[in-house]
From TrEMBL:
<keyword id="KW-0812">Transmembrane</keyword>
<keyword id="KW-1133">Transmembrane helix</keyword>
<protein>
    <submittedName>
        <fullName>Delta-6 desaturase-like protein</fullName>
    </submittedName>
</protein>
<feature type="domain" description="Cytochrome b5 heme-binding">
    <location>
        <begin position="52"/>
        <end position="107"/>
    </location>
</feature>
<dbReference type="Pfam" id="PF00173">
    <property type="entry name" value="Cyt-b5"/>
</dbReference>
<keyword id="KW-0472">Membrane</keyword>
<dbReference type="Pfam" id="PF00487">
    <property type="entry name" value="FA_desaturase"/>
</dbReference>
<dbReference type="InterPro" id="IPR036400">
    <property type="entry name" value="Cyt_B5-like_heme/steroid_sf"/>
</dbReference>
<dbReference type="GO" id="GO:0006629">
    <property type="term" value="P:lipid metabolic process"/>
</dbReference>
<feature type="transmembrane region" description="Helical">
    <location>
        <begin position="313"/>
        <end position="331"/>
    </location>
</feature>
<dbReference type="InterPro" id="IPR001199">
    <property type="entry name" value="Cyt_B5-like_heme/steroid-bd"/>
</dbReference>
<dbReference type="InterPro" id="IPR005804">
    <property type="entry name" value="FA_desaturase_dom"/>
</dbReference>
<dbReference type="InterPro" id="IPR053100">
    <property type="entry name" value="Cytochrome_b5-related"/>
</dbReference>
<feature type="transmembrane region" description="Helical">
    <location>
        <begin position="170"/>
        <end position="189"/>
    </location>
</feature>
Length: 443
């Protein structure tokens, strides 16, 4: 299949020529979940249905019965959900069930550039993991639950202690632990509806928002113009190799980002939702104001509400700094990693393209606590997002076997390499003329 190139220069104020998409997605750069979803409905152009490969389905009556939760079905109405369907369902049971909701075939080419051929990398890998996951399961074991709940109890204890002792130091420690709590909750909001995913609501974002921005956008269209985690902070953070970046965009983040990270992704989502609720009249997503329960508890134990508010701010400033640092250096940004505008591989198998857009860190793999709290085993997590992180280590042998079968060398990067590579990528104005692939040498 020939490489997809942009059919026009320009778009969204840049002369970058896209390589994953034919043109910049509608509403780019995406500022919130509503803009991304509405833009995707326009670009996918399938009316009131759900598209999977070249077939349309009407899943309206299935939403309440969907084992993963009705939210996934409701928010994706009118969109192509091929990538979401393939990555969320490992066995063939869901495909058999789809037949009940079939509407018609569709011949219009998909807007997405990715393929899922039966003999391709991703479908082959899925077939190989099926018997393993049938034996060990896909859900969280007691270790994952203990880590998530233990971190949450530690957060509650430190929060109360900081209030009783009027300690900003303890509030900062509570914020650092909160960042680990919400990072760990990321494991749970990828799975079927469960109450632990709402630990994420203790930040200034919600599991609902992040199921859209992270699970449905970033995970499925990683490092492309349709990845909201690429576009949401444009122009302050510019990861695509645009040739017209300003000097401030290329090098300014080294200076200003630590002043802005406290107002990072969680707080940004919160302010967008408040604006939508009180200016546009849209109901806020579930859990939008859960974080203020923490302020309420701190006010009970503090000497005054004013002191509680200051401790609360200190807590969340620390939480956002730590969470943003972990998230932004976890796996995706380095000049050797694919970003839209770089050459895309000739075989656009979704799994292979995920390998091009992700790197794993040598320091994290093998330690479940680190994997859960710092987005570890990230390549396997992107390939199988609904599988609990604790099960991913068992899949490395068959994953490496599949990589060998398709002649795809797999390597890790160090955290330091990804940290510095992130700044190199923001400074980068030259698209990579060679698709990144995977180098055999470990960085």
């Amino acid at each position: 299949m020939p490489l997809r190139q942009s059919d026009r220069q320009g778009g969204a104020g840049t002369n970058l020529k896209l390589t994953a998409y034919k043109k910049f997605p509608t509403n780019y750069p995406h500022r919130n979940t509503d803009l991304w979803l509405s833009g995707k409905r326009i670009d996918d152009n399938i009316g009131p249905y759900w598209r999977i490969h070249n077939k349309l389905y009407d899943l309206t009556d299935f939403a309440d019965r969907h084992p993963g939760g009705k939210m996934w079905i409701e928010v994706t109405k009118g969109t192509d959900i091929t990538e979401a369907f393939e990555s969320a369902h490992i066995s063939g049971n869901a495909e058999k069930l789809l037949k009940k909701f079939f509407v018609k075939d569709i011949s219009t080419p998909r807007n997405s550039p990715y393929t899922f051929h039966e003999d391709g990398f991703y479908k082959t890998f899925k077939r190989k993991v099926q018997p393993i996951l049938k034996e060990i399961g896909t859900g969280p074991p007691w270790k994952s639950l203990l880590i998530q709940d233990g971190l949450t109890l530690a957060f509650v204890g430190l929060t109360i202690a900081s209030s009783v002792l009027s300690s900003f130091t303890l509030a900062a420690f509570a914020g650092a632990i909160l960042s680990l709590v919400i990072s760990c909750a990321h494991n749970f909001f990828h799975q079927r509806d469960n109450w632990r995913m709402h630990y994420f609501d203790l930040s200034f974002a919600t599991a609902y928002d992040w199921r859209v921005t992270h699970a449905l956008s970033h995970h499925l269209y990683t490092n492309t113009a349709n990845d909201i985690e690429i576009s949401i902070f444009v122009p302050l953070w510019e990861y695509l190799p645009k040739p017209d970046k300003t000097l401030l965009q290329r090098y300014g983040t080294i200076i200003y980002e630590f002043a802005l990270l406290p107002l990072g992704p969680p707080f940004h989502h919160h302010m967008q939702n408040i604006y939508a609720a009180y200016v546009k009249g849209r109901a806020p997503p579930p859990g939008e104001f859960a974080q203020y329960s923490v302020l309420f508890v701190m006010a009970i134990f503090s000497q005054s509400f004013w002191l509680a508010l200051r401790l609360f701010v200190a807590l969340h400033v620390t939480a956002h700094l730590v969470f943003s640092f972990i998230g932004l250096t976890a796996a995706h940004h380095h000049p050797d990693i694919f970003h839209d505008g770089d050459k895309m591989r000739d075989d656009p198998d979704w799994g292979l393209c995920q390998l091009d857009a992700v790197r794993d860190r040598t320091e994290v793999t093998g330690n479940l606590l680190m994997v859960l709290t710092t987005f570890g085993d990230h390549t396997l997590h992107h390939l199988l997002p609904t599988v609990d992180h604790s099960k991913l280590s068992s899949l490395y042998p068959v994953f490496l076997e599949t990589c060998k079968e398709f002649n795809v060398p797999f390597s890790f990067m160090s955290w330091q390499t990804l940290f510095t590579g992130r700044y190199l990528q923001m400074a980068n104005i030259t698209p990579n003329p060679n698709h990144p692939g995977y180098k055999a040498k470990v960085s």
